[in-house]
Structures are given as structure tokens and as C-alpha cells.
């Protein structure tokens, strides 16, 4: 018996001080217009990367996403004692030996670089699968000694295609959780079991331009010149963010295994760590000059049997600051009020569980039981979500 539809929604209210967590191509703060009000925005791609990095460190379950898989294979072969030149050749042949289209890399002079191959698509595979690709190179060492230029009739990598494609099908916990897009290799695609929304401020924000200068220490000591060693400007913003994500446990267990017992146990670990990583992670842009390491003031989780439900609409009308300043308290009130209204409208039976953890809010009537810690909150929620799983 398959797991019934189960969605674990997580809602976060988090104030962030002077920062630029996620820049655009001009190094500007990312923004959006919502409710006819300008908001600071952090892209889901940026925060998902932070989540993945936190997740991988916590579980020690790493995945590699790259177009330069040949170079990684070559590194492994060199570590195994291969000659540097031969390892480079073999890595290039392996990179060109799958069903994924490729191109020979070019240098700054736009000329092709021998034995350096880039796949056209990013390959996403478990980190330990690189060792298996190196094993294939070891097994076909005599056939991979020619330079790879992308030209000529000799293509020893063609004999490797099926073997390499088989390794590119491999997945681990993080790939089963986040999914994988790899259309060129049959059955390599994985539907993601998590969805992450762009974070945005619950209130209107403004972008601030910071002027800075760097002192030249020698000039300062000598005093023989005036002016700074370097000057520049950078954009920053502040605000209280609303963040949302959801975990589709039915999809996750399907990705993990056809054996329900194994899938449920693995799903418990992965979902728990994803939720904790979502809570604790933070994009790292400009961290050295802003140190914006804040903590969520509220985390609300709900287990739903019907569909995910974002509370973003609670902030379509931007929150106004409290009498003495601050947006956190009113943002939390907005979450509480919207939860009541939305769950009443949809019907309370669809919410199988609701709970929250917060710093200092004691009168939240519609967010379920309060837990003392984020870990206790997440553990209890995942246990409820998987309580009816087949055993």
C-alpha cells in the first residue's frame, strides 16, 4: 500500500538586518512588486543552494552538479597514481562517453583546449559516483590514451556509453528530495519532492546605496598623498521575510524505493533534515561585510492531506510597522489570522497537524501546539505525517 497524499508545509517569519543575500547580474538587491508595493526578494534558487549545502553537511550525503565531470574524473585518477596527462585524456573521453551532448572547452583566446570537455547540460549525481566513473576509465585504460580534440575518427569513448549512462542514473537522498533534470539520459530525470518559494519582505522596502572607501595603509603611514586606495558603492536592504516551502512525502517515498518500509524510514530522515536545513540556512552573499546571521522569529508547520498552501497572500497588503517600529510582531499576527481564515474556508479536516515554535509569541491561537525548539517541532511534525504510512 502506497503512502497517502501528505504535504508538510513550512512557513517562516525571519527578520534580516542590513544585507544583500541575493544579488542580480548588476550586484543589485533583488526586488519584486507585490500588492503594488516594492519588496526585497531572495530567489528560491539562492535559498535552495544554501539549504542543499546545509543539508549535505548535516547528513554527509553530497551530490555534485557540474559540466566539468571529466576534470573531476581526472582528479580521481591522478589521486590513484595515474600520470597527469593520461588522467586528463581519460577524463575527457569519459565526459564525452555518455548520451549527453558535449563541446570541447575553449581558452581565453577562443581556441579549443585539448583533453578538456564540457557537457552541454549540468550533470547532477552523487559525489561517490565520480569514483565509479573513474573505475570505468581504469577498466578501459588502454583505449583512453589518445588525446581528445573532438575531431577525428577514433572515438574510444563510444564503447563506454552504456556503462556511463548507467552511472548517471544513480541518485542519493538529496537528488531524491530536490529532483534532477537530465533529459538526455533516459530515466535519469527525477521529479523533485520539495517546492521552495521566493522569500519576500512582508512590508514595503527601499534599497539603500552604501558608499565605502578602503584605506591604503602605506599612504596613510607616509601621509604623502590624499585620498583612499579604493572607493565604491554597493546596494543593501533590510526587512522581515516571509519564507515558504513544502515537502510532498508521497512523491519522496516514491522516489526512494518500491519497498515501502525502506522508503518511509529514508523519507523520515530526509524530510526532517530538509525542514531543519530550511529553518537554519541562509544565503551567503556579502556575508563577510554584513554578517546577517539572524534567526527565524516564527516557524509554523502544517501537515495537509489535500494540497500545499502558501500564506503569501497574507502579505499582499503590506504590513505596517508597529507603533514603536518593527514588522515582526504584525507579520506573525498576519500568519495567525490567515491560517484561521484559510483553514476555515477550505475545511479544517484537511489539516492533519499544525504546530509552531517562536521566540516570544504566546498568544498564537491558530498555529497549533507550541514547541520549545525547532528540532522538537520538526520531529513531531514528521512523525505525524508518516504515522499512517504502511509498515
UniProtKB/TrEMBL annotation:
InterPro entries: CRISPR-assoc_prot_CT1975
Family annotation (Pfam families): Cas_CT1975
Protein name: Type I-E CRISPR-associated protein Cas7/Cse4/CasC
High-level lineage: Bacteria, Bacillati, Actinomycetota, Actinomycetes, Kitasatosporales
